[in-house]
Every structure is written in structure tokens, then in C-alpha cells.
Write the C-alpha cells for this entry.
Amino acid sequence: MKNKKKICDGENWLYNDIVKDHFFHPRNILIDDTDYEYDGMGISGNAFCGDVMIVWIRVDSKKEKIAECKWRTFGCASAIASTSMMSVMVTEKGGMSIKKAEKLKPENIIKRLGGLPDKKLHCSVLGDKALIQAILDYKNNRP
Ligand code: FES
């Protein structure tokens, strides 16, 4: 008889259900950016672990609101879940204003995720930093 026991189904993983959901079903992830047109793009790296994050935004320039936020990372589960949540937060309810998005802090994202383990808090900074870079890129290149 074959062994049917699951080795790792995430059940006893250290993350809460919201974090797991965003890790297993990341929102707004962009795997192939070949033809993706964006208004701003930012890249950040985490010196602590060497992981990398890229964020692209599309902006409704009339309203100065974020219309789309796409991302891709070479990072861990916390980075994936945090950035997935961040991408939801900046695009929900018609999009977050650029001014408000610039003030978004990792703590705000972690709160919406229902918390992260202490040793994984630094991972939530990746998406936030890349978003700020993308906004700067947008501001520097807008007509
Ligand atoms: Fe590198 Fe989480 S360990 S982003």
C-alpha cells in the first residue's frame, strides 16, 4: 500500500490563515511582464536575506490613484503574502491615492494580514520599498 500522508500541506505552518491564503493564492502577481505596460516600476532587495522584489503600477493620472499594482518576487512566503496583501490594499475601493500609498507602512500591511511571526517581519518591507520606488519612477516620468 502506498503512503498517502501529506508531507507539507501548510496545516501546521507558522502562518495564520490569511497569510497562507495570500501565499497559496497570491493576488496581482505578474509572472511574465514582457508586454505589460506600466506607469512606474520599482525594485527592492533585502540585504538580510538577499531576496528581491519588483513592483509595477498603473496610475489613474486624473485622480492620482493607483489603478493597478502588479509584482513578482524572488522571496519567501512572508514576502509573497505581504506583497499580495499590499497590492490589494492599494487597488481596492477604486485605488489608493498616490499620497496615501506613499505613507503606507509595513505595519499597516502586517495588521491586515493578521500578523507575521517576529522573525519574518523584515520580509514585509520588500513590497513596500518597491512600491515607493515605483511611485518615484511614476513621478519622475509622468508627462
Ligand atoms: Fe527574504 Fe523573507 S526571508 S524576504
Notes: The two ends are 67 Å apart (CA to CA). The chain has one domain: 17-30+37-141. The helical segments are 17-24, 77-91, 98-102, 106-112, 125-141. Residues 46, 49, 51, 75-76, 78-79, 123, 126 surround FE2/S2 (inorganic) cluster (CB under 6 Å).
